[in-house]
Design a protein that fits this description.
The complex is a heterodimer of chains A (about 750) and B (about 600). By secondary structure, chain A is of the alpha/beta class. In chain A, about 50% of the residues lie in helices and about 20% in strands. In chain A, strand 19, helix 14 (about 480-495) and strand 20 form a beta-alpha-beta unit. Chain B has about 600 residues and is an alpha/beta fold. Chain B contains 23 helices and 15 strands. Classes of the chains: A alpha/beta (about 750), B alpha/beta (about 600).
Chain lengths: ~750, ~600
């Protein structure tokens, strides 16, 4: 479609002379004053170019200082150095967020908000076609035809890797000529997308381009091509068409924004759930503490939930910053095959690129397609729908082929969580942010290094242990092949870092996995990312489960220790209960001998009892004496420490019983007060064991969920009573032994 | 303008995602020239190419490098410890924190930097600052001067309403009274100064703060545990609800004497401190190395000139009579005696205050004020003009004293504060007549004139600046001047502190000398001796005054009103001095309480 436009008249120089304002030429890179010293920092360089473009005379004396004489005669000095700004009163600091830079940017944004320009032809159409057209890689062709064409991995030498157009089946070319040239129009929309989340804010700059009037997506103008663009006037009809493209752009952008928002939400999910759980648990406990305040607490809970949601909400906004109507010459180049059939290719001369040919069946552009002897171009998908033959030549209706393609269900598609499907829709910046998050999951430092070809590169870890991480999103979701792995390994070898990782949204085929293993590239493909996203979704639930599991394991270990302690004490108590024999020591010598045996056993017994007291202290200190959050018994000791208590109980059982046995082996009765003394000793031991047992019983780890149920205060009372009884028995034994000693002459 | 496109449907309690696009068709309406086609801009492609580079100039996403100190470098040079606090809050504690630095270390600066950093990165737009009444204007000035942020007080004429105003400063009682309107919208950032005033869990103010939807919250207090350990619970529960469980659980876990009235003995202090550290930033004075110059105070209380004394007595009697007539007019809302105006108590009190200030200031100032009033009140014209006549010829003892002090200074530059424009003009003439260069620095001057005056003063071309309080906002003279003369005393001690702050700030190389003038047995004499000197106002640690005022009557003490009321209500000097002394005792008690709270906080947190 042809539309009228006016070429901009070259009038810059005359205008400036008439206005009496001396300026440097508009091409900022050629500005004589500005070019002498290269400025430090993007802000100063931007300021220089903006000021020059606005008609100011700019001088750069120092890499940190820019002096501009504006067209109104005033002088401004800008610097990027804080020290300089402090030292020189008239030097304005240019920093992001600062008023001076914001003013320059706002001026630029206002001037560039609605523009129309024409791209002058760059290059020769025929030469561009000859450069772009490539034959299939020898022995291959999976990129261009067959059922796997859209998703198969590319081979090592696939011409698509270098941006060529592949036409499988193209015969020998006998002639190439330009048939006609027409002016075409496209609209470029520049958006600022802003993602805000609990983690902060991230801005993205997105340029989307659409052909007019079809609204089909096209390439944005390369930065290099913008330099030579010529301004043009805009016809009202073009303005109307631009408005028609907006819904298409909205829809394309919405997919990206939604995907970016969803991934960001996932990053905050665990923390959000943790906060929400804190709030809900507190609410539940408050309700149980003060049921009469339920209505007020409900209100507070609703407000708090709203607030937490506000804090963690992900806000994504997009604002249209500029609209540019771009005119470009498109040439139709006819490629004649030796058999006479012709293929027509379109060349965008302004952008300097060959447009991918359109499929004769589905009408979509495809960089890899098949061409039959009659010159019909069909994309891989449509060719496979027609069984590999040219559907046009076979006389099949276009509709029939399209229906066949639509009917064919993808065989290897498994249902996936929304997270992983979002990854393909992420904008480039969001994809980069996602991979940074993914790589930083193990809390190592992550530094983005830039791009190399289609790969994004990061350094992981510190200098000594650094590894190279790469990320790749193959075009159109093609599978990851061995060639991709080799390419990544080459990049890794060049960077000389310890290890190479390749992260990709695509599924890697078998060859790729084998190659990765062979070359030592850690491959994390779509399956790994799917697992990661799933884990992120479940992180909070897993956290709770881990805490619960750990507490349960400690409780079980404590339960084991408790059983061992009770078992050991039970053994000693049983021995003491059975030791009340009826044998009698008669005669002074026998009594003295029995008394000596008991006296001899007492030091060992005291040591055993002291060890038991220490053990019981350790047992008690394994538990907090105050309820934890949620009213549970907190078991502070690790499972290892609790298992050690179990083992110590076993050892000390032997020590205690071993110390008791010599006492129990003595006659149960004897003259001269021996009976009373021995009974008092045994009573003391029995009471000591009972006190220990009650101390063990005072804590029941099996009921750890409820502090009050797990702690038995009555048992502590009983323990104290038994300890008192033991002290009394010890006093009686002391007194009885004094009498005995005097009677047997000790 | 942003039109919401859609909000992602969330399942249950998932993180909400809100997606919106800003008016997508705004730029698509192409302007059409008269001839049909839009005219081409010859530089359009170049501007368009340049626009694509602006993305790299946007504020970066992470807080690795703080932008606010760079952007504000002309206004503010934060201390390293303040920057550390800002970094920690933004990187580790977002979106809520308690700033609990010791008194005088600049919590306001930290909060301002956090606000500015968030604003520069587009993370906050709406901000609400809650502060004690006595500190509202100080907050406003500080935010304007140091952070280039225009905040509105709710009692200002330009206040556009709670629904529309993006940046508001408000007192806590006002906030509670207006809560329904305040809460109609979510706020991006809430800053609460002297946040220990929210410690009472049953107070309405705390409940309102808890219910307010604010994404970011900053609580500022030097004493997060003023009296009880549960104060800490109250504050932490505001920034991280649920973190400490219920109050009962908190007491069970961390209080050694739960259930008692004091609740002051901590249990498990290390664990408690660990939790507090998660949400609190506290810098102690000992951890900083702030070079502050000292202050020397010279208070000169002199007898009034012979005819000045009688004038003061008579004009004061007139003001008292005016005050006594006030309730009848105000209560009935009738026309004033002149018949021209309806009487409003606030307006009359303001006029009485202005007359009182003139009276304390200079006979020429009161002369002008009386003549002006005579013009408005025909029924009092005779009395007022007779008094004015006498004022016109009366001598001023303070003026003579000023000249004497300036002579003592021997050319050393001085900043003189007066309350009245007429006095400023009169003093300028008198000082100039003495051969010393002087200029007035008042609110009526343009920005350029102010800059020129400050430039002249700092360059040594001027020895004396005579300023009014309104005019001196934003004045920084620490480079050359270290003498402040309170020619007229201000009854708001914050104003006194702000005056001294014009020279006593970072960058002052010498000790600062503060001269205070008052006429013996006048109200200024009592305020100076029985109130300001009692609490050591002039040598108080920087920042301590704010906390004392916040402590006194929960920040609602309006000293100016109280002093004026005392002056007008009492008949004898004894009663008046007694009332002022009682006010002094009240401030002293607040100072004691504040010091006790500081000690308690230090014991628990340090």
């Amino acid at each position: 479609m042809r539309l009228l436009f006016w070429r901009k008249q070259r009038r810059d120089a005359e205008d400036r002379q008439r206005s009496g304002v001396a300026t440097v030429p508009r091409d900022t890179r050629a500005a004589p004053h500005a070019a002498q010293t290269e400025l430090h920092g993007a802000a100063l360089r931007f300021a220089r170019d903006a000021l020059v473009l606005a008609g100011a005379r700019v001088r750069v004396d120092d890499p940190d200082l820019l002096t501009a004489m504006l067209s109104d005669g005033t002088t401004r000095r800008y610097t990027g150095s804080l020290a300089r700004a402090r030292a020189e009163a008239d030097a304005v600091l240019l920093v992001p967020g600062g008023a001076a830079l914001a003013e320059l940017v706002a001026d630029c944004a206002a001037r560039a908000a609605r523009v129309a320009f024409a791209l002058p032809p760059a290059g020769d159409a025929i030469a561009l076609v000859q450069d772009a057209l490539a034959a299939l890689a020898p022995g291959c062709g999976r990129c261009a035809h067959g059922p796997e064409a859209p998703s198969a991995a590319l081979c090592d030498t696939c011409p698509l890797r270098s941006g060529s157009v592949v036409l499988a089946g193209l015969g020998r070319v006998s002639a190439v000529h330009e048939r006609q040239r027409a002016q075409t129009f496209a609209v470029e929309l520049t958006y600022l997308a802003t993602y805000r989340s609990a983690a902060g804010r991230r801005d993205e700059w997105r340029r989307l381009a659409y052909e007019l009037p079809s609204g089909e997506a096209t390439a944005v103008v390369p930065h290099g091509a913008l330099a030579g663009a010529e301004p043009m006037a805009l016809h009202p009809r073009l303005g109307e068409m631009v408005a028609h493209v907006a819904p298409r752009a909205d829809s394309d952008l919405a997919r990206e924004l939604e995907a970016g928002g969803a991934v960001l939400a996932l990053q905050s999910e665990a923390e959000y759930q943790r906060r929400l759980r804190d709030v809900l648990m507190t609410y539940e406990r408050l309700v149980s503490e003060s049921p009469e305040m339920r209505a007020e607490l409900d209100l507070a809970l609703a407000a708090e939930r709203e607030r937490v949601a506000d804090i963690y909400a992900v806000d994504v906004t997009a604002e249209l910053q500029a609209v540019a109507v771009v005119a470009s010459s498109v040439a139709e180049v006819v490629v004649r095959q030796a058999g006479g059939a012709e293929v027509v290719l379109e060349v965008d001369l302004g952008r300097g690129m060959v447009l991918p040919p359109r499929c004769a069946i589905c009408g979509r552009r495809a960089r890899a397609a098949g061409v039959c002897a009659h010159g019909h171009v069909t994309c891989g998908e449509c060719a496979s729908g027609a069984g590999g033959a040219c559907a046009i030549c076979a006389g099949e209706g276009v509709r029939a082929v399209s229906a066949a393609v639509a009917r064919r269900a993808p065989s290897d598609v498994v249902p996936e969580s929304s997270g992983v499907t979002h990854l393909a829709a992420l904008s480039p910046d969001s994809w980069r942010a996602f991979v940074s998050w993914y790589l930083g999951d193990d809390e190592r430092p992550v530094e983005y290094l830039g791009t190399q070809g289609a790969l994004l590169l990061w350094r992981l870890g510190t200098e000594a242990t650094a590894e190279l991480a790469m990320a790749l999103r193959p075009e159109g979701g093609r599978a990851l092949g061995a060639a991709d792995i080799r390419a990544a390994a080459d990049v890794g070898a060049g960077r000389q870092m310890g290890r190479a990782r390749l992260v990709s949204t695509s599924v890697a085929d078998g060859e790729a996995h084998a190659e990765a293993e062979w070359l030592g590239v850690a491959l994390e493909d779509r399956r790994a990312l799917r697992e990661f996203l799933h884990q992120a979704e479940e992180a909070h639930a897993r956290e709770i489960a881990t805490v619960e599991y750990d507490a349960q394991r400690r409780a079980e270990a404590a339960q084991g220790a408790r059983a061992a302690l009770l078992d050991a004490l039970h053994g000693a108590e049983q021995a003491l209960a059975s030791g009340d024999n009826t044998r009698r020591a008669t005669g002074r010598a026998r009594v003295a001998q029995a008394a000596e045996a008991i006296r001899g056993a007492l030091p060992e017994l005291e040591r055993a009892l002291l060890a038991w007291t220490t053990l019981l202290d350790d047992w008690q200190s394994a538990f907090d004496d105050r309820p934890g959050r949620g009213g549970a018994l907190v078991i502070g000791a690790e499972t290892g420490a609790l298992e050690e208590l179990t083992a110590r109980a076993g050892h000390l059982r032997a020590a205690l019983v071993g110390a008791i046995e010599p006492i129990l082996a003595t006659p149960g009765q004897g003259e001269s007060g021996f009976t009373a003394w021995r009974r008092a000793v045994v009573e003391r031991l029995t009471a000591e064991c009972e006190a220990l047992r009650w101390k063990v019983l005072a804590i029941d780890p099996e009921r750890w969920h409820d502090f009050s149920a797990a702690r038995d205060s009555q048992a502590l009372v009983e323990a104290e009573a038994a300890a008192t009884a033991a002290r009394h028995a010890a006093a009686r034994a002391e007194k009885a032994y004094t009498q005995l000693a005097s009677r047997i002459g000790r | 303008m942003v039109d919401a496109v859609h909000t992602r449907a969330t399942n249950g309690d998932a993180v909400p995602v809100r997606i919106a696009t800003a008016d997508p068709h705004r730029l698509l309406k192409w302007p059409v020239a008269a001839g049909g086609d839009a005219l081409p801009d010859p530089d359009a492609p170049r501007w368009y190419a340049l626009l694509q580079r602006t993305h790299a100039l946007r504020a970066p996403a992470s807080f690795e490098t703080l932008l606010a100190p760079l952007v504000l470098h002309e206004r503010l040079r934060p201390h390293p410890y303040q920057l550390r606090v800002v970094e920690r809050v933004l990187r580790e504690m977002a979106p809520a924190a308690i700033l609990a630095d010791e008194v005088g270390l600049g919590k306001t600066v930290e909060a301002g930097l956090i606000y500015k950093e968030l604003e520069l990165r587009g993370l906050v737009e709406s901000v609400l600052v809650l502060a004690p009444k006595a500190l509202l204007s100080q907050w406003q000035e500080e935010l304007r001067e140091r952070f280039d942020a225009d905040f509105v007080l709710t009692d200002e004429k330009r206040f556009a309403g709670w629904e529309r105003e993006p940046r508001v400063i408000c007192s806590l009682p006002q906030f509670v009274r207006s809560f329904e309107r305040v809460a109609t919208r979510p706020w991006d950032l809430l800053i609460v100064d002297e946040a220990h005033l929210l410690a009472n869990p049953d107070s309405k103010r705390r409940r309102c703060v808890a219910l307010l939807r604010a994404r970011w919250r900053l609580l500022l207090t030097a004493t997060p545990v003023a009296n009880k350990l549960t104060d800490l619970y109250s504050l932490i529960d505001l920034v991280a609800p649920g973190k400490l469980g219920t109050r009962r659980e908190f007491e069970a876990e961390y209080v050694a004497d739960p259930g008692t009235a004091r609740v002051a003995r901590p249990a498990r202090l290390p664990q408690l401190r660990a939790i507090v550290r998660d949400v609190t930033c506290r810098t102690r004075r000992a951890e900083t190395d702030i070079p502050f110059a000292g202050r020397a105070v010279s208070t000169r209380i002199i007898p009034p000139a012979p005819d000045e004394d009688a004038l003061i007595t008579e004009v004061t009697a007139y003001l008292r009579a005016l005050y006594r007539r006030l309730p009848a007019h105000a209560a009935r809302g009738r026309a004033s005696p002149s018949g021209a105006l309806r009487v409003n108590r606030g307006a009359v009190m303001r006029e009485i205050m202005a007359l009182q200030q003139s009276l304390s200031s200079h006979p020429r100032a009161i002369e002008q004020s009386l003549r002006a009033r005579a013009g408005r009140h025909a029924d009092e014209r005779g009395t007022l003009l007779a008094l004015a006549e006498r004022c016109g010829v009366a001598a001023s003892a303070k003026e003579a004293l000023l000249l004497e002090v300036l002579d003592e200074l021997r050319g050393e530059p001085a900043l003189v504060f007066t309350l009245r424009l007429e006095t400023a003009a009169r003093l300028r003439e008198a000082v100039a007549a003495r051969g010393r260069s002087a200029e007035c620095y008042v609110g009526a001057l343009s920005r350029a004139q102010r800059e020129a005056l400050v430039g002249r003063f700092n360059a040594g071309g001027l020895d004396t600046l005579i300023a009014t309080d309104a005019g001196a906002e934003g004045l920084n003279l620490q480079q050359r001047c270290s003498v402040v003369v309170n020619y007229d005393l201000h009854w708001n001690p914050m104003r006194i502190e702000q005056r001294i702050g014009r020279v006593h700030r970072l960058g002052q190389a010498h000790d600062v000398t503060v001269y205070n003038f008052a006429l013996r047995d006048t109200i200024d004499d009592y305020v100076l001796r029985l109130l300001y000197q009692k609490i050591n106002l002039f040598t108080m640690t920087v920042g301590a005054l704010e906390t004392v005022l916040a402590e006194a009557q929960d920040g609602e003490l309006d000293l100016e009103d109280r002093i004026l009321e005392a002056l007008l209500r009492t008949e004898s000097d004894e009663t008046l001095s007694g009332e002022v002394a009682a006010l002094g005792d009240e401030l002293l008690a607040a100072l004691d309480r504040q010091q006790a709270a500081e000690t308690f906080t230090a014991r628990i947190l340090s």
